[in-house]
Write a structure and sequence with these properties.
By secondary structure, this protein is of the alpha/beta class. The protein has helices at residues 32-45, 93-103, 109-121, and strands at residues 17-22, 49-54, 67-69, 130-132. It has a single domain (17-132), classed as Glycogen Phosphorylase B (Rossmann fold), CATH 3.40.50.2000. The longest helix has 14 residues, at 32-45.
């Protein structure tokens, strides 16, 4: 057993490469977009490299924080909320899953966003130290 005070501390104090996920980022109300803006800015202030992956409505971010847009069917938009997706809008398996889930009464946005984010992140296995969802 190691003697007291001899245990190693953190291995590395280097800045983290963080992927921050937000299934929607409405910038002025609703919480998630506002929280995303402030938290990612604070993480950048601490020296971390933060990249936001978001669905629409997209958040407004600090200029140091890049945004990866992961478009959805936007079924809950402000202009026509709860609209039904049209067949020509279904361009991927994730779109089909989102529409089917929505049409059966589920809140499909988080699930569909997670699938899109997973598809994006799996192509970048070494780009991030931490994924925040």
């Amino acid at each position: 057993m190691p003697s007291p005070g001899s245990e190693p501390g953190p291995l590395d104090d280097a800045p983290l490469r963080i992927a921050y996920l937000a299934y929607r980022g409405k910038p002025h109300c609703g919480g998630q977009g506002v929280y995303t803006h402030h938290l990612t800015r604070a993480l950048a202030d601490l020296g971390h490299q933060v990249e936001v992956l978001a669905g629409q409505p997209y958040p407004i971010l600090d200029e140091r924080v890049p945004l990866v847009r992961l478009p959805s069917l936007d079924l809950y938009n402000d202009h026509f909320p709860m609209r039904k997706a049209r067949i020509w809008e279904l361009k991927s398996v994730w779109d089909v899953a989102e529409a089917l889930s929505f049409n059966t009464g589920n809140f499909s946005e988080p699930m569909a966003f997670s699938m899109r984010a997973w598809a994006h992140l799996r192509k970048r296995p070494r780009d991030f130290d931490l994924v925040h969802d």
